[in-house]
Amino acid sequence: EPEVTQTPSHQVTQMGQEVILRCVPISNHLYFYWYRQILGQKVEFLVSFYNNEISEKSEIFDDQFSVERPDGSNFTLKIRSTKLEDSAMYFCASSGDLQPYEQYFGPGTRLTVT
Amino acid sequence: AQSVTQLGSHVSVSEGALVLLRCNYSSSVPPYLFWYVQYPNQGLQLLLKYTSAATLVKGINGFEAEFKKSETSFHLTKPSAHMSDAAEYFCAVSFQGAQKLVFGQGTRLTINP
Hints:
The complex is a heterodimer. Chain A is an all-beta fold. Chain A contains no helices and 11 strands. In chain A, strands 2, 4, 5, 6, 9, 10 and 11 form a 7-stranded mixed sheet that branches. In chain A, strands 1-3-8-7 form a 4-stranded antiparallel sheet, with no helix packed on it. The model of chain A has no long low-confidence stretch (mean pLDDT 94). Chain B is mainly β. In chain B, 0% of the residues lie in helices and 55% in strands. In chain B, the strands form 2 sheets. In chain B, strands 2, 4, 5, 9, 10 and 11 form a 6-stranded mixed sheet that branches. Chain B has a 5-stranded antiparallel sheet with strand order 1-3-8-7-6, with no helix packed on it. The radius of gyration of chain B is 13 Å and the shape is globular. Chain B starts with a strand and ends with a strand. The A-B interface holds A 4, 6, 31, 33, 35, 41-45, 48, 50, 55-56, 58, 91, 93, 95, 99-108 and B 32, 34, 36, 42-46, 49, 51, 90, 92, 94, 97-106.
């Protein structure tokens, strides 16, 4: 069964450093998303991506965040200068064009900023 | 404002008992509704979905949910709990066909032997 994969599973970084979180969506999906879940809080939407551009972003997704689809399979989230409050589980999701609201999630990357 | 509320951050039931996890949303237009399950140290797995077809939706692992427009609810049920059902359950909503999902705060389900 096709699935969304994410690497790394756990990333530890120092405050102010740049991190790139990687995702491989389901191969025939066209919509891609990032969500995050701060420990003990709700899962929050960050950004959606379609046709090589951002289709929607939340207030959380400020200038320190960026997304990219560098090739035909990967989808990345870059945080330019990490802050302590960026520590969270980051989930990638993807969906197909027939049912774009039906999203399939990866296992997540736990980001710890020290 | 559009929102999703899960009543009860923690629900505990005995093995074999009925499971009922509550989800209410606030919207004037019926949205698309989803339940996801998260097992420890794992990602979010889609349990079931409502997308304006039958109001009683069956999902995986014996779970089902009923969409009630008049109550703006989408409660998740399972007739008989199993130990393997212990997990965190999230209700999620796509409002007015928007792609992004809005999640409830989650309900941790514990099963007592």
